[in-house]
């Protein structure tokens, strides 16, 4: 009976979380439409809001392929932040870990001419190392991981820029287009590209690969680790209460470092998926600001309530409105409108607990009362009087 009640409660919580996320999306889109009206009311609907709603479908199939290519790394950076959240840590260093992962993937592809799967492994390892450093300071010196991970974002960015650029003479740097060498235009480097299995032909792109399926598979794997394994239970236990975990015999220092290392590895893997799909090349001259993928991962994690499976859908949604924003006519609107909508949704996600509480009270209050009243009364035990 208790298991049945627990399962019913978990289902109710899942429904309220989804509805709360949808409410955040609806409010964010409504505010975005009001902004479009304020900027240019004559074109707010057809040339503005409708294009954002359509997303990649505005220019299908190319736009849809672009959505999928951008969603893959978003899933991974969202998982990076969500995994840390689940273990009681705030990984705001996903951008730096993503940057180191990008360098690892591109170095192995361009310099070592390794196949794509080896490049992905190296990207994952470098991201994991960059994530483990803030975890080490948190575990042994109790330094807040937010501070150290922010600092390592910038250290990683300028370190990678210097390693690639090297005053314009770096072997990975193409002076003609001020970026790293293009993997898709060099036959010798083409084996570093993630295979597409006909997806590029289907979507009429050159960057839609199986990366989206790899990212979804990792999301499912992370869900299994967190919810179905002893290792995942230990990580969450340390996040909830380090002292209690230590009392239970769990090595809290090791688990803190492992949590941040895994979070960093996920971000690094995402960078490998992005650059080895030939979506873009790294530009050390213009990369003076941190990659937006790392910070967009925060919005993905918040919108998904840190659920690994939910990150798949929230990443696709963020990619959808971002691509839709890129199709806005610059004659009437700035393309950053989609970023504004994402920002509003992120802000509203901070109130998701309040939304979930209100939705739960509206939908399941009577059901909870019914369940309580339906519980059978405990059986009375009869006692026999002993005769003398």
Polypeptide structure, described:
Helices cover 69% and strands 1% of the residues. It has 388 residues and is mainly α. The chain has a single domain (2-364), classed as Orthogonal Bundle (ABC transporter involved in vitamin B12 uptake, BtuC). The protein has a two-stranded antiparallel ribbon with strand order 1-2. Keywords: Cell membrane, Membrane, Transmembrane, Transmembrane helix. The chain crosses the membrane at residues 68-93, 114-133, 139-160, 208-226, 256-276, 297-317, 337-355. This is Nucleoside ABC transporter membrane protein.
Which segments are poorly predicted (pLDDT under 50) over 5 or more consecutive residues? 383-388
The tally of strands reads: 2
Helix content: 55-70%
* Radius of gyration, in angstroms, nearest whole number: 24 Å
Strand order of the largest sheet: 1-2
- Counting structural domains, the number is 1
User: What's the CATH architecture?
Assistant: Orthogonal Bundle
Form type: globular
Subcellular location: Cell membrane
GO molecular function: transmembrane transporter activity
Protein name: Nucleoside ABC transporter membrane protein
Main location: membrane
């Amino acid at each position: 009976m208790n298991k049945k009640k627990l399962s019913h409660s978990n289902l109710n919580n899942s429904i309220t979380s989804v509805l709360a996320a949808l409410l955040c999306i609806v409010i964010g889109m409504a505010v975005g439409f009001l902004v479009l009206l304020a900027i240019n009311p004559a074109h707010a609907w057809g040339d503005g809001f409708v294009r954002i709603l359509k997303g990649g479908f505005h220019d299908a199939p190319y736009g849809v392929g672009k959505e999928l290519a951008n969603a893959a790394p978003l899933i991974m950076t969202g998982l990076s932040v969500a995994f840390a959240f689940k273990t009681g840590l705030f990984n705001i260093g996903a951008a730096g870990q993503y940057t180191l992962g990008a360098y690892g993937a591109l170095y192995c592809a361009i310099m070592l001419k390794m196949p794509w799967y080896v490049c992905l492994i190296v990207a994952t390892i470098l991201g994991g190392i960059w994530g483990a450093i803030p975890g080490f300071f948190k575990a042994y010196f109790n330094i807040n991981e937010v501070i150290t991970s922010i600092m390592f974002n910038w250290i990683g960015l300028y370190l990678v820029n210097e390693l690639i650029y090297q005053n314009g003479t770096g072997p990975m740097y193409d002076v003609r287009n001020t970026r790293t060498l293009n993997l898709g235009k060099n036959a010798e480097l083409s084996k570093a590209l993630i295979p597409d299995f006909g997806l590029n032909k289907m979507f009429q792109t050159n960057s839609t690969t199986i990366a989206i399926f790899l990212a979804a598979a990792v999301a499912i794997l992370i869900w299994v680790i967190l919810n179905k394994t002893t290792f995942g239970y230990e990580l969450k236990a340390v996040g909830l209460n380090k002292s209690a975990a230590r009392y239970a015999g769990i090595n809290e220092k090791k688990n803190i470092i492992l949590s941040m290392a895994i979070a960093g590895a996920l971000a690094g893997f995402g960078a490998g998926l992005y650059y080895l799909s030939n979506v873009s090349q790294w530009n050390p001259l213009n990369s003076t600001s941190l990659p937006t993928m790392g910070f967009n991962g925060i919005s993905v994690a918040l919108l998904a309530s840190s659920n690994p499976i939910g990150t798949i859908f929230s990443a696709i949604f963020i990619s959808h409105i971002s691509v839709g924003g890129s199709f806005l006519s610059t004659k009437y609107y700035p393309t950053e409108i989609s970023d504004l909508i994402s920002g509003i949704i992120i802000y509203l996600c901070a109130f998701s607990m309040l939304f979930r509480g209100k939705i739960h009270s509206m939908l399941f209050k009577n059901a909870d009362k019914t369940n309580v009243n339906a519980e059978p009364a405990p059986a009375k035990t009869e006692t026999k009087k002993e005769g003398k």
